[in-house]
Amino acid sequence: MTKEERAYQLSGPQKIYRGFKAIMDFVIALVAVIVLSPLFLVVAVLIKLDSKGPVFFVQKRIGKGGKLFNCLKFRSMSVEARHDVAGYEYVEVNSYITKVGAVLRKYSIDELPQLFNLLAFQMSLIGFRPSQANELELNTAREAYNMYQIRPGVSGWAQVNGRDRLAAQPTKKAEYDAYYLKNFSLWLDIKIFFMTIVKVFKREDVEEGVLENKDEEK
What we know:
10% strand; 4 strands; mainly alpha
């Protein structure tokens, strides 16, 4: 199957929804930041008391149009941890995760600062999880599916259909992303939103670290 056959262009109604979605994301993020500001303050204090380093973890990710942006998270790992790899790529990842960070990751609280990415129109509440530039196989598949015509999201269809279990299956993950793009709609976003809440509280499909170092496998 060629790239042209796999690529998908948003329909007219979907493009209209894309514009409406950006405004809706901004309003939701603004309200959420105001309501959750006390939680943000508490988490920031706990992070500083628990370990040395900044409150926020900033990492370059690929956004709409293939442009890089600074994706924000609450820092959940020690400053000794590498910035260019994800948690699932670490050997003995728990040795890097801080005590406070373990709680933040357990309930996905570390993702909340991405609300500021929504305010900057860099992300959506629902989309596809933004990847790093060095995730070549995943990025190539996403380009083939024309994913970058929409913004990445805090959660997405792949997140509620495998999450960390799909980390080592970039092609499969991209297929879930493509499904989301082809069915891009308000109703699918609502479905993913509530599925995300259930997944977070059940802690389903959450896996930390790997058994072997990737360099050792080569």
